Input
Amino acid sequence: MTTFASGTTASNGERGLTRDALTVLQPGFTGTTAPDWLLRRLGEGLASVGLFGRNIASPEQLAALTAQLRAERDDVLVAIDEEGGDVTRLEVRTGSSFPGNHALGAVDDLELTRKVAAELGRRLAACGVNLNWAPSADVNSNPSNPVIGVRSFGASADLAARHTAAYVTGLQSAGVAACTKHFPGHGDTAIDSHHALPRIDVDESVLLERELRPFRAAIAAGTRAVMTAHILVPVLDPDRPATLSSTVLTDLLRRELGYTGLIVTDGMEMQAIAGTYGIERGSVLAIAAGADAICVGGGLADDETVRRLRDALVSAVRSGELPEERLAEAAERVRTLAHWTAAAADAQLPADEEVGLRAARRALRITGGDDFTPLTTAPYVAAFTPVANVAVGDETPWGVAAELARLLPGTETGSFAGEDAGLATLAAAGPRRIVAVVRDEHRHPWMGAALDTVLRTRPDTIVIEMGLPQAPARGALHIATHGAARVCGRAAAEVIAGE
Output
């Protein structure tokens, strides 16, 4: 029998209530094998587990981990934050084999986007992952956005809508449920919701035509899940962020847009929620507002977090704050998705190992290429490195140095930041040809100043922009990769070395 913290023994009805409370949680954990507490919770009703880079060492290890989870519960939803591009968990230590959304939007080939998503889904399914917290359907209308950027297909709502639908179709053809995010749209923000609560002040007509268009396309394409955004949209709800708003989740997403699948929250430990409502109160409000699954575990990844959220939901039902029918409905939607993934698990797609590289090559935008002579000697690669946002993380390597070293042995590299970055680069490079690698130069004044310094002395410098290509193209050769995935670096290195 289930025993609550108070020491009372649960009746059959309370046991069902407790199972439902566990069913709606999507927690994380630390380590590359499942801890005992997690396996025990699966036996008690937990239906989902979220994986992050810390849980993955290799495809073989990941397959063993998911098999361990399924030995305890065969219909468990195993979720992951695998967008490809800058945000990768499968290849967190090497960089992704797939370019991200912005590169795919730059190519603007819907069939290519579908193929990339299908191959990514095939690899996830082969490792036992059946729910992907992707794609990002956000329209990156604010180029200063610190958290979306190259995770978006682009600044055009029509472009984002078409590619979101293609991505959902491709991913789900592999039997992996798509979770389209971040509803109702995180593109027009200047604050990272990992750190604070962003606000989008647009009128309703802009919201309908811009932010919501990709989500309509995703729903039409059959997305099995939608992830909420921790953002305040006053035109919809002046008081509560979207994740906690029944106006946004129930009235808009369910009733107006006709969505019937699973609604998942963004990570509840993000400061936009944890720093304002707290994770327990936030989770209760989210389920009451219409969310069906609580994502938590990126930062809080222990049994105590699961217990706290379970008990908060149970207490809210007992007090009458959260209708028991609403919690039961949410839990049933989780089970419905689990049934879909089980039925879709037999999807057998042919492998297309090189599709990511083909896409990365096509995404390059090259300025100055007509007068450029490929390098035959090893250059010095200066990486002008900004602080990584939390979604991307700082453990994933980026840049072109590793790929250039493979093509031009002897290539050396250094990482530079701050007001002295330009002078430090010149001193470190010496007489060698400089390849300067930037990421969102337009958002970092120190980066632009560093390039100014380097180019004044060394106008033959090659510049690689691996973020949003908003700043003017300059240098003897300028390559915009539209993302910092490993394959984007490889594609750029091939051009530099004349491969």
Observations:
- The CA atoms of residues 87 and 391 lie 7 Å apart.
- The two ends are 66 Å apart (CA to CA).
- DSSP finds 18 helices and 14 strands in the chain.
- Residues 1-9 have pLDDT under 50 and may be disordered.
